[in-house]
Amino acid sequence: MKALTKTDFNFPGQQGVYHGKVRDVYNIRGEELVMVATDRISAFDVILPEGIPYKGQVLNQIAAKFLDATTDICPNWKRATPDPMVTVGVMCKGFPVEMIVRGYLCGSAWRAYKAGARELCGVPLPEGMKENQRFPEPIITPTTKAGIGEHDADISKAEILDRGLATAEEYALLEKYTLALFQRGTEIAARRGLILVDTKYEFGKCNGEICLMDEIHTPDSSRYFYKDGYEERFAKGESQRQLSKEFVREWLMENGFRGQAGQQVPEMTPGIVASISDRYIELYEHITGEKFVREEASGTAARIERNVMAYLNK
Questions:
Q1: β-bridge pairing 194-206 and 119-120
Q2: β pairing state of 78-83 and 119-120
Q3: pTM for the full model?
Q4: 222 phi/psi in degrees, rounded to 5
Q5: Can you tell me the distance from the alpha carbon of 281 to that of 59, in angstroms, rounded to the nearest whole number?
Q6: Are 180 and 173 in contact (CB under 8 A)?
Q7: What is the tally of helices (H) and strands (E) in the chain?
Q8: Pairing between strand 123-124 and 119-120?
Q9: Contact assessment for residue 45 and residue 21, using Cβ atoms and an 8 Å cutoff
Q10: Over the stretch 291-304, which tens digit does the pLDDT of each residue have?
Q11: Least C-beta-crowded within 10 Å: which of 113, 132, 168, 201?
Q12: Contact yes or no for 140/156 (Cβ under 8 A)
């Protein structure tokens, strides 16, 4: 298995390229973005040394399906998917915050709660909650968008408004879209025997209109539990069976890595890499109800270039 961890294309009309933690984004004439979902994987805002075969294909295809399935809720940036690892969309000016929505107390929120926090991003949390417990209603806990070499940071609605990162009217619409998208994702997941635990959305403005950007409901941006057995495991205080990137973070923490200065990423053996790849494919098949079709892993970059060029030259 070969992973695509780097791209260096030169498309017609290309004005620049941004290499993110996972995606490489090509600016075409200042109007369109060609977003390549690579096989890179990050955790704790650190790009890990090994790529995960088929991860980019999984992320791109799940995101494309959910973007198409939510156009009645809010407009989004997607125009086409010319390749299994590529989405082309309209360029938007992004809000410098990520809208994180949580339906259950787990992950970083649980770690903060366990340490005594009773408020997240200005949102009060009930006393006496347990790990993986469902909130009475989903809560929104935004973070700032990290720059290169920086970490995302929690931020409250009040701080977002005070710093002028969004107007009150814009933020009200961001909240409305976030909760509606989460509800739709929850309903789709339930039909597949899954629980959408938490996720994040990114929004931007195009021609004065707020649009959903980037990925949606993928294992990189979302956490899923298996519905079957959730209640029994919760009652016993047992860990939930989940499909998300959290198992990667847990593996890193177990091996002494939390993304802090001086810490070394543990060795990613072929077995670890293969198991992560299998998890991503498992989530794809569960959330879509379709068999994952592996694209030929050799010559991936050439295939992407050929497919994107055909799209741009139309």
A1: unpaired
A2: unpaired
A3: 0.89
A4: -140, 160
A5: 10
A6: no
A7: 8, 17
A8: antiparallel
A9: yes
A10: 999 988 779 999 99
A11: 168
A12: no
